[in-house]
Design goal:
Strand content: 15-25%
CATH superfamily of the largest domain: Isopropylmalate Dehydrogenase
Structural class: alpha/beta
Oligomer: single chain
CATH class of the largest domain: Alpha Beta
Largest sheet: 6 strands, mixed
Shape: elongated
Number of domains: 2
Radius of gyration: 29 Å
Distance between the termini: 58 Å
CATH topology of the largest domain: Isopropylmalate Dehydrogenase
Number of helices: 15
């Protein structure tokens, strides 16, 4: 029951026997929110596996006091209502309330004490099977005067399980055997730990390429044991980058992974004409972002390599991203081609490129995805914004991939999502002979692991005939 205002029954208006009720369907989110607010992290309520071990049922049960908290809602909102002061509560808990159960909580006035305006209420919780879940009494001080006020609008609560979609990608990657990976210059704790963690998780088999002494010292500082992983000695970062590329060219590694060296240093060896890893496709980078307020993983490309890509470069960037999305299980990725406006305008080159790319997709020059553009950022990720602008499109408001006009725009979008929307960031370099994991010192363990999982998925997709 939702009302636009709250009011109350004064002590004098309350009659013995008077009742009020609320009914709630228990969801997993209710349990998680109660755990978050109370700090009660008992696995009985939060871990389906643990719950099953205890009573053979994987269906989570609510904290007992979750149901009791509904009593407060009835007393404070309906009877007596606004101005009520809760003095004491006595309850017996008779059976659990599980996810999917409907709980009806009823309070009934039992007695009144005029001296201090105390009212004692019977409190009962009954499930959908008419079984008592709890029973007891509450003692409150009822208000002396009438209150009639507009209901306070509570803030919306957005639930997001940190890293849940990334964890799904990691599970997908486990269907394949580990891929031999040349890890270039892992001479600091973060890059070495990222590689070894991915190896421990069964995603990659690392070849540690760089100065042996520095790698071993980084391992000692980080408390890691690199003994199970071969070290390919190289005197410095330039040599390590060249040697890592050489290992890939020789078929000894199927993934290239950046360690503690500048991206330009590694990529200069990747794109070197005679000895690099170029293909006929333009090399590009794609961020795969888990944004708490967006319903699925969102790819942003290119925000790291191509500064001002022309039309043909954008064609390759889109195709690279589509193939990565397909490797992630998105059968027909939706590509939103971004600009500042939604109409084709000769003064804005991004809109002209968008129109051309859509026609190229119509003619089979880009395959596997559904393209639309130009689209402004809001129209690409918000159906409501698209409707407001009168845009009818399968892509608008539901994009899997955002193609940005240039590196500056893409970098700003990615970092705004990361720092203002608490997005997680993983990604890959695409279009070379093998996927390239570009880690950053700011990347967390999950982001590094996810980037490795993306590389495994992409590498195995490229192997398929």
């Amino acid at each position: 029951m939702i009302v636009d205002f709250v009011e109350n029954y004064t002590f004098d208006e309350i009659a013995v026997g008077q009742t009020a009720s609320v009914t709630r369907l228990l969801t997993k989110r209710d349990i998680e929110l109660f755990a978050l607010l109370s700090g009660d992290l008992n696995p009985t309520h939060l871990d389906e596996g643990y719950a099953a071990e205890r009573d053979g049922r994987r269906q989570l049960a609510a904290h007992s006091l979750w149901g009791a908290s509904l009593i407060s809602g009835v007393l404070g909102t309906y009877l007596p209502g606004a101005g009520t002061v809760h003095r004491s509560q006595q309850l017996d808990f008779l059976r659990p309330v599980r996810v999917g159960d409907t709980l009806r909580v009823t309070v009934r006035a039992l007695s009144k004490q005029p001296a201090d305006r105390t009212v004692t209420f019977e409190c009962v919780g009954i499930n959908q099977n008419e079984e008592r879940v709890f029973e007891g009494t509450a003692r409150v001080v009822a208000p002396a005067s009438k209150v009639h006020r507009r209901r306070v609008d509570l803030p919306e609560v957005h639930f997001h399980e940190h890293g849940a979609r990334y964890k799904n990608l990691i599970e997908m990657a486990h269907q394949y055997p580990p891929v031999r990976t040349a890890v270039v210059h892992p001479v600091d704790a973060a890059s070495l730990e990222g590689a070894i963690s991915a190896a421990t998780a069964g995603l990659i088999e690392p070849l540690l390429v760089g100065p042996r002494a520095k790698i071993l010292e980084a391992a000692r500082i980080a408390g890691l044991d690199p003994g199970n992983y071969p070290i390919v000695d190289a005197p410095h970062s330039h040599a390590a980058a060249a040697r890592g590329v050489e290992l890939v060219r020789g078929g000894e590694a199927g993934i290239l992974m950046k360690g503690s060296l500048h991206t330009d240093e590694l990529m200069s060896e990747v794109v070197r004409g005679a000895t690099g890893l170029r293909t006929e496709r333009r090399v590009s980078h794609a961020f795969v972002m888990e944004v708490p307020t967006y319903p699925k993983l969102l790819m942003i490309t290119d925000a790291a390599i191509n500064i001002y890509p022309d039309l043909l470069s954008k064609r390759d960037i889109v195709q690279n991203a589509i193939e990565l999305a397909q490797a992630m299980g998105v059968e027909r990725p939706k590509v939103a081609i971004l600009s500042a406006v939604e109409t084709v305008t000769p003064k804005l080159q991004a809109t002209m490129d968008a129109a051309a790319l859509c026609k190229m997709a119509d003619r089979g020059q880009i395959t596997g995805g559904l393209l639309d553009g130009p689209l402004a950022f809001d129209n690409a990720i918000s159906r409501q914004a698209a409707r407001t602008k009168g845009i009818r499109s399968e892509v608008a408001g539901d994009a899997d991939i955002l193609l940005v006009p240039d590196l500056e725009a893409g970098n700003m979008i990615a970092k705004q999502l990361q720092y203002l929307a608490e997005a997680e960031t993983a990604g890959l370099v695409l279009g070379a002979r093998v996927p390239i994991v570009l880690t950053s010192r700011a990347d967390g363990a999950l982001a590094r692991m996810t980037s490795c999982a993306l590389a495994v998925l992409y590498a195995n997709r490229k192997r398929k005939p």
